[in-house]
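Quick start: read one record
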Amino acid sequence: MRLRTVISAIASAALLSALPLAAQAQAGTPSSIAEQIPATKVYVQQSANGISGWSSIGTVPAGYQGTFGVQFNVTNPHGYWRLYSPAVGGFQAGYSNVVHYFRFNTSITGGRPNATTVHRGQRITVSGNLWQQGYGAWGPLSGGVVVLVFQPSKGTGAFMAHTTTDAHGHFTVSAEAWSGTGTWSVTYQGSARWDVMADGPAVYVRVD
């Protein structure tokens, strides 16, 4: 099961730079970027076919001067994207040109710790499989880096260990439970060009 699909900051920055907004005043043509985006925020929208079913999945600041990265949860990493500036005052609503942005979907199956109660210093092992899907069927993702993450009941989480999936997409990663009780999970951070992120289940492990 796909638990999470996220457009990476790199992908979002590239997407936004490729989408010049077309919002204009009803009378006259704006002379600056700030005037072209009269609303206080601009909506990022997605569609499965680029024609209908557009839905807003997040916002970015309007009139921002510079480069920034954003992340959004999406339902279809193979979908179509645009920006939308709502009508404000004497300005009409504005829509960017549509971009078809392809990313491989990813999923982690398994990914649960081998125990939910351990002694301090005992090794926790997590095994599972990493999958990817382009336009066709799901298949194993080999060579993907899977990270074991620990989130204590109080405090900041940490990366505990990492491993690389084999030719069949299988992985096994482990670390010693020295940091007390908390939640353990595995995550695939995606790749800069092709794959979105995926998370395994977050499992609470008690340390005696």
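The domain at 105-207 is CATH 2.60.40.10 (Immunoglobulin-like).
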